[in-house]
Amino acid sequence: MKRKDVIPKNKELLMREHDFIVSKTDLKGRIIYGNEIFIEFSGYSEEELLGNQHNIVRHPDMPRVVFKLFWDYLAEDKEIFAFVKNMSRDGSFYWVFTHVAPIFDQDKQKIGYTSVRRMPNPKAIPIVIDVYKTMLEAEQKAGAKDAMAASGAILGKLLEDKGISYDELINVLQSL
Q1: What share of the chain in percent tops pLDDT 70?
Q2: Angle at 90 between CA 22 and CA 138, to 5 degrees
Q3: 18 pLDDT exceeds 90?
Q4: Distance separating alpha carbons of residues 143 and 138, to the nearest angstrom
Q5: CATH topology (fold) of 21-174
Q6: Are 63 and 81 in contact (CB under 8 A)?
Q7: Has residue 149 got a pLDDT over 70?
Q8: How many other CB atoms sit within 10 Å of the CB of residue 86?
């Protein structure tokens, strides 16, 4: 499904405190399951979501290196938490605090990924927006070939300056 016709709007959809957006993908990131709340927030029907890449809800304000982190963690069979700005079919956006983890079968073979998203700590979002904006600017300035390295350098410097790991940063922000 092409998303080129979706134009981002400055209209925010707020997650409800007790909602959980759940989706599952195959190993290539194609959606194989989405709960009703995922369907609601995405604005797509279940039929439109199933079989499509999960990046169907990716907002252009998201630095690409954040998703590289996802794939790096998952390649090592590790779970990852992150703040993500998603985009609905109508161009609205919604922030989530996401937990992505590999799914294993009974033979301990990785068969896909599950993502559970919930309402992010509202106090964290302005901080995340500033960091992501700086990272995205670095990506755009560097050009497509060097975008990941430029954005990753921004995140790496932030972590070094704070003296914490990526996981620690995310946990601190969610618990503000």
Answers
A1: 98
A2: 80
A3: yes
A4: 9
A5: Beta-Lactamase (3.30.450)
A6: no
A7: yes
A8: 24
Q: CB 172: neighbour CB atoms within 10 A?
A: 13
Residue 107 to residues 27, 75, 100, 103, 119: CA-CA distances in angstroms? 16, 18, 21, 11, 34
Confidence of residue 4 (pLDDT cuts 50, 70, 90): low
E-strand spans in the chain? 21-25, 31-34, 80-87, 93-104, 110-118
What pLDDT does 96 receive?
A: 98
Cα 164 from Cα 176, distance rounded (Å): 16
111: CB partners within 8 A, 6+ apart:
26, 27, 103, 104, 105
- In this structure, are residues 12 and 87 in contact, taking their beta carbons and an 8 Å threshold? no
Domain spans of the chain?
Answer: 21-174
Please state the rounded mean pLDDT for residues 54-78: 96
The tokens describing 11, both together, are: 């209209």
Measured in degrees and rounded to the nearest 5, phi and psi for residue 103 equal -110, 135
- Average pLDDT of the segment spanning 90-100: 98
pTM above 0.90, yes or no: yes
DSSP 100-117: EEEEE-TTS-EEEEEEEE
